[in-house]
Amino acid sequence: MKIRHRTLVPFDPQSTTRLREEQHGLHPDDVYLKPGRIPHIWCPGCGLGVVLNTYINGLKMAGLPVDRTAVVSGIGCTGRVAGYLNMDTYHTTHGRAIPFATGLALVRPDLTVTVFSGDGDLFAIGGNHFIHAARRNINLKILCVNNFNYGMTGGQAAPTTPVAARTTTTPYGNFEHSFNLPFLAYASGAVYVARWTTFHARHLVTAIAESLTRKGFTFIEVIAPCPIGYGRPNKLGSGLDEMKFYRENSLVQNDADPREADIGLKGKIIVGKFIDQSRPTFDQVYEENILKKFTRSA
Amino acid sequence: MSTPGILTGEFFINGDEASAEGAIAAGCRFFAGYPITPATEIAERMAKRLPQVQGLCLQMEDEIASMAAILGASWGGAKAMTATSGPGFSLMMENIGLGMMTETPCVVVNIMRAGPSTGLPTLVGQADVMQARWGSHGDYGVIALAPSSPQEMFDLTITAFNLSETYRLPVFVLGDEVVGHMSEKVIIPPPDRIPLVTRKRPQPSPECYLPFQAGDDLVPTMACAGDGYHVHVTGLTHDEQGYPVITAPVHERLIRRLVDKIRLNAAAIIRTEDVGLEEAQVVVVAYGCTARAAREAVDHLRARGQKVGLLRLITIWPFPEERIRRLAEQVRAFIVPEINYGQMVYEVERSAQGRAETVLLPLMGGAIHTPQEIVEAAEEYLS
Ligand SMILES: Cc1ncc(C[n+]2csc(CCOP(=O)(O)OP(=O)(O)O)c2C)c(N)n1
Ligand code: SF4
Ligand SMILES: [Mg+2]
Is this prediction's pTM over 0.95? Predict the structure, then answer.
């Protein structure tokens, strides 16, 4: 067959330097952001900006150089975090950030690999990968932004959607029981389990820094406003109103039993560091029990 | 404990085991998989052998995870492989697409059994040929190799790694149950006699590096994790910088390159084995285990002085359409035995452009062709 192509529009290399020179570097934290990527895609009032910011500050607090880190995301509004961070970042397929990150982390034990993704991504389509990576105690830092819905696709129900909450696929109110994520993470074997809301930015920074320095599978749930997908149908007001709600309804209970950490539509939210323990990681056990049997000369 | 390391010498092993050894000889140090007949022996061999060469074999929770894990390992700089059969190959499709879109070198071995669905778990099939070509959604070029013996399971697994590192994509080894489970002599040459390719790494400073800008070969250099280039790798349509740009012109540029890097390099990629094609009036086109019966049939007819040839496809994708087109000018018929209801035959018929008859010898799976039925099919077109 003959092919008659359209004329290609060539890549304009100037476009990147232009963006870099015009915008980048005005803020001291810009070194943590990929040049030319801001403005971001998130809605006004979205909690994701706070989470991105706390992650950057968590990195700083942990003293981790960006060249020794990588971020892997799945798909969703949260999944877009990867694309803004100025480090090696991988925006994978829906639900598959953890197994991708597993391969990356296991061949590169010198890197600290964070998985940044949404509640739907990590616990609906990706739920199986989560429990197995936790069971194996792979050295991954999981940051789950729980906005109680699928933000990216327009506000459908997620496995975290509280009973009675309205979403576009639960128009009469959700009647399915939702996951208690800290309990799930703990039961699956996570060595560090915490939950904070975007209102608790300072606690969150500390938690991120802590998790980055722990060895093994760590889990932080960040409750975040999604005024568009979740706030509106449930009459929760603006992003700011949701932040006020978090302030008034969060109970800080470090060391709380994760079994007690269920979240209802308008009830109290238990936050804090629930689990901080240590157990041999996959790489440690593999190195000790398997690799040492064979000489290095191979 | 003594360490066997990389093997050299003559071995009596099955095709699955040979594929695992080929991977190790090619430098593969990461394997992720999920047990499935008739590919399990690859995972088992890797589980035993990879630690001996300081590698890692991981049994994942499913094939979706296995495929994702080898992509991650590849971006970590490792040569990585997974192996499966039909049901697992179906599960891998989405992340195969991610591998194509992000141009991630790795090898996916599919030891074909008969489907659809669970089908004949322990018996042979060749019905994943079109799935290998088109199985993940969207447009992309693919490379698939079809070994016909345990020796080729070894050789072509190495070739698959080399092609994946050269062209930066997941490369398929489409074996089948017969070739995977049959044991034959496999010769493993000394390591210095095995040519290996590793991906081109970037030269420029991070400020100037465009991770998805390619030169004339249409293949960009690859900066792996920790190299300091801060690359963004996404399954979204992206520009040369790796940033998501969701527009038709950028998509046109990217997808054309993903297809063209294989299409325009097809001549360098394609390998066939040719038997008696010069004077042939009838050409049998076959691949995998079926090529063994075809070879027997062709040898038999040629011993009787018949002008019959064999075009054995070692590379099945890209398809050697130019070869078929030229042969079609000279032959009366192409005979295509396949263990499916017609897949490769469509390519043969398309490429023959009506100049020669194309005859399919289908077999739904669970058995192999007899040389006799191929002989009889060819005889109809011989004077
Ligand atoms: C296999 C597959 N199915 C469905 C989708 C569509 N999809 C994109 S994002 C998303 C849900 C994201 O929800 P969540 O992980 O909670 O992220 P959020 O947008 O809320 O941050 C879905 C279903 C997809 N991209 N891939
Ligand atoms: S849909 Fe929700 S989660 Fe997504 S950007 Fe908008 S507010 Fe944020
Ligand atoms: Mg969500």
Answer: yes
